[in-house]
Amino acid sequence: MSGQGDRRAVTYFGEQGAAVVFSYRRGNLVALKPGDALTAAERDALVDAIAAAAGEAAEVVSRSVMFAPVPTRGGWRHRNFVQLGEPPPEAPKPGALLGDHPVILEVRHRRSDDFLLQATRSEHAVQAARLVLNVVMGWQLQWLTHFTTFAWVFPQELTSELVPTYQKRGYHIPGFERYADDFRDIDEVMPTAPVLDVYGRLGIQFDDVFTVPDAAGGMLDAFELLQGDQQARFLRGAYWFAHSHRVRHESRSAAFLALVQALEALLDPPTGEAKGEGPSARFRRLVDRYAPGTAASERRDFYRTRSKVAHGGVLFDDLDTAVMGGLHGGVIEDSVRYETLNRIARVVLVNWLVDSVLRPFSQPGSRPDDRSDSDAR
What we know:
The protein has helices at 40-54, 115-136, 195-199, 216-225, 228-247, 252-264, 279-290, 296-310, 329-358, 373-376; strands at residues 2-5, 9-14, 17-25, 28-34, 59-68, 75-78, 82-85, 101-110, 150-153, 165-168, 179-180, 192-193, 212-213. The chain is α+β, with helices and mostly antiparallel strands.
């Protein structure tokens, strides 16, 4: 069976013509409509398959490898939903203080007897966990994508004759299983620290290990409590935040734009008096609300710079290929601007996340004492 369509609808064809139309809204499947070529028997089989998949209640734990800039010691579990832990002894390590140190991510989600449906559920749960953890943990976590990439690399043991080889980028742990019935045991608990200490650290020390912010569990609870549209909005912001870290060594300009996009993803659609506000004013108001210590001049500069870069007016140091990146005033200024917005973006994302959950309870009639008798029943 083949298919064709667009973002809103995909039509699948059988030998006799259109069999079924899948309708989507904001990326989510919302309806299936039978085509002229769908027989009654095929319709009944499809309904039964959907009902069986929707009724699957058993759970499974999906495992994936992420990378942190410092080594991991011990494990950390949030409720019965997600766990981070150090890799097994046989896992390859970078052998250096600064590098991509493996971290094992485990996420619990619904199991499926269908291989493709199980893989889809796994990828959805793992990717959401990656994006959220990259924001709330305060470390720049990374992971490999499904896209195969190759690069010219030198051998680990350098000799007088540097002979590069063309290698596929990837990572593998011998005996690593993608699915498991339960989380791995935790023999040692990861160290924790006040969230401001983790978010506010400057650089990496030689004895640093992965440290969990003490508020991380509450932030994950907040994400789980977000409604559908708000959760999707946060994930879009978290995606651009992660993308900024992924491309920063390729283009500081693109990385800066991604940070601004991460915050723009959180903006509410303009309504009422706000309809007259431009995107710059809405961006400044967002930063002012969720990162109130930011200077007004910085808020204006961030969006002004964003507009210049986005419309081709300026670049950061992307054209300067001199040794050491060209240490002149512009490079230093752009570097400070990026690092400042990077710290602010994390604060805005986290505060928006928590506020989006708490805000409804601050409204009149939202607390149990304010409900009517019919509401209480």
